Amino acid sequence: MALTSIKNLKEFSTANERFEGAHLLCPGCAHSMIVRELMNATDDNLVIASATGCLEVCTAVYPYTSWDTSWIHIGFENAATAAAGAEAMYKARKRKGTLKDPDAPVKFVAFGGDGATYDIGFQWLSGMIERGHDVTYICLDNENYANTGGQRSSATPVGAHTSTAQAGRVSYGKKQKKKDIVAIMAAHGAPYVAQLAPNKWKIMAKGFQKALETEGPCFINTVSACTTEWKFNPKDTINITDLATDSLMFPIYEIIDGRQLNILYRPKNVIPVEEYLAAQGRYKHLFKPENRHVIDMIQKEVNERWEYLQRREEAGV
Amino acid sequence: MAEKMELNEVEVWDGNYAAAQALRQAQVDVVAAYPITPSTPIVENYGAFVANGYIDGEFVMVESEHAAMSGCVGAAAAGGRVATATSSQGFMLMIEVLYQASGMRLPIILNVVNRAIASPLNVRGDHGDMYAGRDSGWIQLDAFNAQEAYDLNLCAFKIGEDINVRLPVMVHQDGFLTSHTAQNVYPLSDDEAYAFIGDYKPVDEMLDFTRAVTYGAQTEEDWHYEHKAKQHRALMDSYTVIDRVFAEFKEKTGREYKRLESYLMEDAEVAIVALGSTVETALLAAKQLRESEGLKAGVVAPRVFRPFPFNEIRDALANVKAVAVLDRSCPMGAMGALFNEVSAAMYASPHRPLITNFIYGLGGRDFSLEDAKAIFREQKGHADVGYITTPLQQFSGLRGPKLGFYEMKRSK
């Protein structure tokens, strides 16, 4: 398989122009960075399925398309299955000799937001992984239903304000914990599962390449900072993502064959989660004195989670 | 290479096995499916063909019917022949994706083994699922027995995949009555069947990387309307290809299909319009009544439910005096759907027979020869007095007090 060189960012960012800059995503949206990285990580042909969501509605508005590759969108919940169906057809046609170019290397990729991945499309994703399709599924996790105006998802963290889990006089925002999608996907026994972030672009590109290289179903949760719903200045997308990874709110790691966990990024100076929270409007209410305990709770859970990941890595099981 | 199967001139197959054999002979590239009663044996039989080397294509057993149709859409967009099967609740779960399949103009074949829709839960046959699909943009073919389930599957691929059609096709058969009733079926040989259908011709395929394609775009008020109108037109115009394929099939097999089947209608005074296995019951009743009572009864049955044979209905019922339209689906707060369509066709005719509506056979309630005869006799009564003497909508075979709705309003 043809891997793109990932030595320097400038070269890498223009390696394959298959995702057009002309699209309707918000300025500062991390989705397009992640998508471009994936598409630049390989020179192989791509068949891409997208779930309904920000990425889909902003990149394929008839009569235009931002996708200079094979692309399909069916519904909100079934991007994993759309890619699986295409992959099955590829296998059948390859066996029967009906492909136009049987030697053309091809990779199958599905994109979904956290709504499509953690919630409405959870079953379809689980089924695709269990059946072992050669598909890489990438979740663009912005921790809310951003396409419909910022409602809670099961990826929304404790304490965040969303339009359906609001902070108010008697509420500090979302009460429930974020679903651990990476652990769930690893528990399927998928050969490669990871959590990656676009600020650590080299690690992310290598992770994408690993997933594309690996035969079988791979799952990657990517942190996609949402300027509109997290409420930060569009120029700060990467700065916010730095705070996310360096506070360990989003640890960067991979799990091989559902067992071996490798931490891919260790911040030199771990910053308090408070700094990450303070940089975003969705957590503003947590800085009232009566909500101080929520920040403490978040910090405690981040510490415990980091401890757990490190022990898992050491144990090598 | 898949092994060929030696078939006898006459086989004893039920509707499900007949459909599975047709899928095998069509050399489908991808079957993505989820089992549900009473269509399960289609998938199981196909699975047996896979396990014994008769299939070269992929057989993907997904985790739900929604995923089954989603996988079919992804596979079809990748440029190959695709088919699946379902019933009832599974069909209902698929519905979202049915519209997406037709909107993307993907010629997927779906065998629908008709079954009632819950609640209350019921595994027996009625037409609730078939009716729920009638606005989904699919061509709908209706088989009345196992032979037809086989024949119409072969025709369905050829119709749906035609470059002038490019639409998905449902092949309906009645749950249990057809799907689980073994009958004599005359199959084609593997070579003959495949030669009749022909190779799949990819259109805008996702696996041709010389030309990027985008499937499933967004359109709002600026383009959505034009897309839907074009799709409707393609469905409306598909009748020319359907007629041509039926003619070719007749030439090959001697078995004749028409978009609207008419039986004993040449001199009929009264008629029943129905779908599915009921057609055979009604026809037998008509024959017996003609012999025993001299009642000139006939039967009219849409072989193609979509596109609806509007003109053909108008012609077929041009000379009858009274018509009973039978709906095997509860319309819930309205007249039956088939009644509405037949009535609309006849309203556009200078000749307007007396038309009444019967709801019947829900949840697999038996529709007997006597039930059909009673309906014919009642139509004869209407014909003789020149007006409808009963409620416009009645329930046949229902226990308890008679249920009926709406009276005919007669001008003095």
Number of strands of chain A: 10
Pick out the low-confidence regions of chain A: none
The level-1 CATH class of chain A = Alpha Beta
Shape of chain A: globular
What order do the SSEs of chain B take from the amino end to the carboxyl end, as H and E? EHEHEHEHEHEHEEHEHHEEHEEHEHEHEE
Distance separating the two termini of chain A: 30 Å
CATH superfamily of the largest domain in chain B: Thiamin diphosphate (ThDP)-binding fold, Pyr/PP domains
Radius of gyration of chain A: 19 Å
CATH superfamily of chain A: Thiamin diphosphate (ThDP)-binding fold, Pyr/PP domains
Total helical elements of chain A: 12
Mean pLDDT of chain B: 97
Largest interface: A-B, 47 and 47 residues
Strands ordered across the widest β-sheet of chain A: 2-1-3-4-8-7-9-10
Question: What is the CATH topology of the largest domain in chain B?
Answer: Rossmann fold
Please outline the major beta sheet of chain B: 7 strands, mixed
* CATH third-level topology of chain A: Rossmann fold
Molecular shape of chain B: globular
Overall domain count of chain B: 2
CATH architecture of chain A: 3-Layer(aba) Sandwich
Average residue-wise pLDDT of chain A? 96
Please give the alpha-carbon distance between the first and last residues of chain B.
Answer: 74 Å
Structure commentary:
The complex is a heterodimer of chains A (317) and B (412). Chain A is an alpha/beta fold and 317 residues long. Chain A has a single domain, classed as Thiamin diphosphate (ThDP)-binding fold, Pyr/PP domains (Rossmann fold). Chain A is 38% helix and 15% strand. Chain A has twelve helices and ten strands. In chain A, the strands form two sheets. An eight-stranded mixed sheet of chain A has the order 2-1-3-4-8-7-9-10, sandwiched between helices. Chain A has a two-stranded antiparallel sheet with strand order 5-6. In chain A, β1 (45-50), α3 and β2 form a beta-alpha-beta unit. In chain A, α4 (79-96) runs parallel beside α6. The longest helix of chain A has 24 residues, at 292-315. The radius of gyration of chain A is 19 Å and the shape is globular. The model of chain A has no long low-confidence stretch (mean pLDDT 96). Chain B has 412 residues and is of the alpha/beta class. Chain B folds into two domains: 11-253, Thiamin diphosphate (ThDP)-binding fold, Pyr/PP domains (Rossmann fold), CATH 3.40.50; 260-405, Rossmann fold (3-Layer(aba) Sandwich), CATH 3.40.50. Chain B is 39% helix and 18% strand. Chain B contains 13 helices and 17 strands. In chain B, the strands form three sheets. Chain B has a seven-stranded mixed sheet, with helices on both faces. A seven-stranded mixed sheet of chain B has the order 10-12-11-14-15-16-17, sandwiched between helices. In chain B, α4 links the parallel β4 and β5. In chain B, α6 (146-160) crosses α9 and α11 (310-316) crosses α12. The longest helix of chain B is centred in the C-terminal third of the chain and has 17 residues, at 369-385. Chain B starts with 10 loop residues before the first strand and ends in a 7-residue tail after the last strand. The chains are: A alpha/beta (317), B alpha/beta (412). At the A-B interface, β1, β2, α4 and α6 of A face β3, α3, α4 and β9 of B. β2 (70-72) of chain A pairs parallel with β9 (214-215) of chain B.
